[in-house]
UniProtKB/TrEMBL annotation:
SUPFAM superfamilies hit by this protein: Cullin repeat-like
Organism of origin: Daphnia magna
Keyword terms, alphabetized: Exocytosis, Protein transport, Transport
Protein name as annotated: Exocyst complex component 7
Cited InterPro entries: Cullin_repeat-like_dom_sf, Exo70, Exo70_C
Amino acid sequence: MTDFNHKHEKVLSGLGFLQDAASRSSQLTSGMVNILTSFEERLARLEKTILPVYHETKNLQQKQENIDKTLASLDHVIGYYSVSKEVEPVIKESPSSQGLDVFLHSLGRLQEAMHFFEKNNPQSVELENVMSLFETGKDNIISEFKEHLAKHSHIVPPITVLEALATDEEEINVNHFSADIKDNLMRIADWLITHNEDDFMNVYARFRANTVQKTLIGLRDHLRSSSVGAVSHQGVSPIAPMSGTSTLLAKSGVKSSYDTPSRKTSKKLQQMLERKANQMLLKASQTLESSTGLALGSRRSAADIIKEDAVEEQEIESFFTEFTALLRLLQSELRLMLGIIPLPHQKAVLSIILRDALEMICHDAESLSARARRSVARLEFGPVLLLFPALRHLVCLKGDCDKLLEGCDSSVRTRFYAMVNNLHTTCGKALEDFAESVRSESAAPLPRDGTVYEMTSNVVLFLGQLTDLSDTVGPLLAQDQSYSNALVHTQPWPKPQRNRALLGLYIKKVLVQLNLTLVTKSDAYSDSSLRYIFRLNNSHYLLGALQRSGLLDLLKVVEPECESIYREMINEQKRLYSQSWNKVLAPIWNSEDVPASVLLSGRLREKDKALIKEKFSTLNKEFEELSREQRGYSVPDVELRESLKRDNKEYILPKYQAFYDKYSNAQFSKHSEKYIKYSPAQISSVIDTFFDVAA
C-alpha cells in the first residue's frame, strides 16, 4: 500500500509540473503573438509609406530609357543625312585607291541610307544624293572589274601553249590572275550578283573571249611562220612528210641541240615533237623506186603545188594544234571562272568565250574541206588524204568536246558538230569518188612497154594511207548500207574488228574495180604478149605492195583467200604470156616433118631439104621478131623478170634442143649456117636480154 501511495504522489507531482509548464508556455505564446501583431502593423504602415516612392522611381527609370533610345535614334537618323558627305571622297575614287574593303563598306552605308530615305522620306533631296552617289560607286566598281580583266587577261605565248600541250594534261595551267586579283574579282562579282547586276558576266566573257582568240591567232601565226621557214629550206611536197625530227622542231619554233636557244625548251616538248615526227600524217615517203625499181616520172616542183586549192601538211598540223589548244584553253577557262561566275551561268559564259575562236577553227576546217572537194572533183585525191588524220583527231577528242559543250548554247554545239559532219561528209564522199574514179579511169595512157600502170601505183598509195585509219574510215563506210549489209551476212563483229572489216570491204571494192579496169585497158594492146605482160606486171606489183603496206592483212579480214587468188591470177597470166612462143614453136610442132629414117640414111630429097630450110627460116624469123619485141617490154620487178626468163628457157629450150639435135647435122644445104643461126646456148643468151631496152 505504501508503494502505491508513493507512486501516486510522484504522478501527482509530475502532473503539477506539467500544468505549470503549460501555463508558462501559454503566457509566452500570448506575448509572441502580441509582438508579431505589432510588427505586422508597423510593416503595413511602412509599405503604405514606401510603395508610392518605388512606383515613382520606376517611372523615372522608364523615362530615362526612352530618352536614351530617342537620342540614339536621332543620332542614327542624323547619320544618314551625313553619309553622302562622309563617303563621297571614297566613292568618287577608284576602289583600288582606297582599298576594296573600304569601298564596299562605303557602298553598304549608302545602301542603308537609301533604304531609310525610301521608307521614311522618299521625296527628300538626301535620297536623290544618296542614290546618285550609289550609282557612281556601282559604276566605279564595275570599271574596277573591267580594269582587272583588261590588265591581267594576258595572251598565252605560243611556246607556252605548245609546252602545255606536250604534257597531255586536260588544261593549260596558266596563272592568268594572281591570288589577290582573283579574290578581288570574286568579291566584286559577289557584290554585283547580290545587287542584281549580272551584266558583269557578259563583260567577263568578252574579255576572256578576246584573250582566247588572240592566243589562238598568235599560235597560228607562230606555226605558219615556222612552217614557211621549213618549207622554204626544204621544198617539201604537199603529200610527203617532213623528214627528220629537226625539221619538225624548227616548225614548232624549238631550236635543235646545234642551235643556241633563246630559252630552254622542256624535255617533254622535245619528246612530243619527236613523236609527231615519227607519226607523220602520211607515209608517201615510202617511194615505189625503193621497192620496185619503177620510175614514176618527175616530181612536181614547189611552183606546181602552190595554187589555190593546195592543202598542205602544215595546215593540217596547225589545225590539230589549234583545235587541241582551244579545247585545253576552254578547260582552263572553266577553272578560271570558278568563284567569279555563278555555277548556273558558267556554260552560258563559256559559250560566249568560245564562239569566235570556234568560228575561226570551223572556218579553217571548212576551207580545208572545200579545197579538198575541189581537188577530188579534178580527180586529185592527195589533198583529201590529209583530212583523214584531221577527222580522226576530232573523233578522238569528241568525248572531251561533248563534256565541255554540255550545257552550252545550242548554236555553239550545232556549229561544232556541223564542222565534224562536214569533214565526215567530205571524207566519205572522197572514198566513193576514188572508187568510182578507178572504175571509170580513162585519162592516163597505157605504158608502151607494159610496165606497171600509173593508176595501179596511185591506188596502192591511196589505200596505203588508210591502213592506220580503220577507226576513222570504218564509221564513214558504215553510213553506206551496202557495206553494213555485206558484214551482216558473214559474222558478228566486235567494234574494232568491225571497222577493220569495213575498211577491208572498201579495199576489196577498189581492187576489184582496179582489176576490171586493168583488164579492160589492156585490151587496147594489139600485141597479145604485151597485154599479158601488162596484166602480169600490175598483178605482181599489187600483190607485193599489198603485202608490204599491210593492206593484205585488212583484205584477208573479209577475203581470206585473196592472196591465193592473186597468185592464181599471176600464174594464169604467165601461162597466157607463154603462148607468145607459139609462133616460134610452130615450125617445131608442124606435123609435116622429115622422117627419121631419111635423116639417118643421109639421102635427103629436095622436098626434105626445102622443108628443113623453111622450118629454120620461119623459126629464126619469129624468134628474132619476138626477141625484138620483148626486149622492149618492161618488167621492173627483178624477181618477176628473172622468173619469166627462167620460165621461157624451161619452156623453149628443151623443145628447141630436140629440134636442133635432129636437124643441125643434116646435109640440107651447103650453107647451113645461113639457116642454123642459133644454138640452144645462143637462144638462152638472147632470152637473157628480154625486158631490157638497153640490150
